[in-house]
Amino acid sequence: MRIIGSIPHARFKITVFKTSTRFPLQLEDRDLVQTYRLRQGNGIEGFADVMTWLTDERLNKATAIFDQMRQQMTDHEEDDKLRKSEINDLPDLI
């Protein structure tokens, strides 16, 4: 797999890769990543086709998914803090 290009974006780092049969498209938002594996053929033959595939609508959906992922991470961290505080609230046993 090799990098064939990147697509500028204000929020995401967008990288396009090439394998023998696919064009993996990776979107990074800080510590989160989404990858779309586009098969070669059916209108996807190169970097320009991947750029065309990546519409504003798809970017908006990816943004919503990143927001959901980040919320899940936040919820999980809060659950962990609550569990730790419950464990620390147990009385000391001799």
Description:
By secondary structure, the chain is of the alpha+beta class. Helices cover 43% and strands 30% of the residues. The chain contains two helices and four strands. The chain has helices spanning 47-53, 56-88, and strands at residues 2-7, 13-18, 22-29, 32-39. Strands 1-2-3-4 form a four-stranded antiparallel sheet, with helices on one face. A hairpin with a 5-residue loop joins strand 1 and strand 2 (13-18).
Strand order in the sheet with the most strands = 1-2-3-4
Structural class: alpha+beta
DSSP strand tally: 4
What is the share of helical residues? 40-55%
Low-confidence stretches: none
Radius of gyration, in Å, reads: 20 Å
- Quaternary structure: single chain
List keywords for this structure.
94 residues, alpha+beta
Write a brief structural summary.
The protein has 2 helices and 4 strands, in the order ββββαα.
Topology:
Elements: E1 2-7, E2 13-18, E3 22-29, E4 32-39, H1 47-53, H2 56-88
Antiparallel strand pairs: 1-2, 2-3, 3-4
